[in-house]
Amino acid sequence: MKKFLLVAAAVTALSGLGGQAHAGLLGSTIDISYFFPDASTLVADPGARTVSNAIEYPAGFFPPLLGIQIDVTDSQIIITNTGPSFTFSNLGGVSFNGFIMTIGSGPTITNAVFFGPPIVDFGPTGGGITSGGLQLFINFEGVFVPTGPASTFIDVTTASSAVPEPSTWAMMLLGFAGLGFAFRQSRRKAAFA
Question: Are strands 129-132 and 135-139 parallel, antiparallel or unpaired?
Fold first, then answer.
């Protein structure tokens, strides 16, 4: 019985060492690029980043939008203008003036919602956010951006993982071991009776 309790305590302690199943953007590899005048004409691509607790794209990474910085958190995209005011152009055949976020590794995006005024200072045009699995399109065509600091917030929902956490596996194995031990003890007691 002491041996069983020692094994049970060890398995329980080790089960806490495994990482938790995670469905947010933290730890994902993303690539945010600036496109204009349509969604196929690339203007600036500063390269892929890993989502962390730091600002992924500081100001100056998206010429000619030198005041724009983009921070991606576990469940939000925060786009901030740190420079002078400007307007995302919508003149003469412009169909897209904004950012496309592509997830290189991580969960798929199931939904993205923009917080409207008065919570934010500027935001995408009507219907300006579309998500398609591993890509998110944020269109600011014709939007006026005030002098910084001015921000917009986009809530992102991702698909959850169906893989059990390591601690779940450990507890399940511990349960099976306990059932096996109890069954063996009951057979042993029945043989002595």
Answer: antiparallel
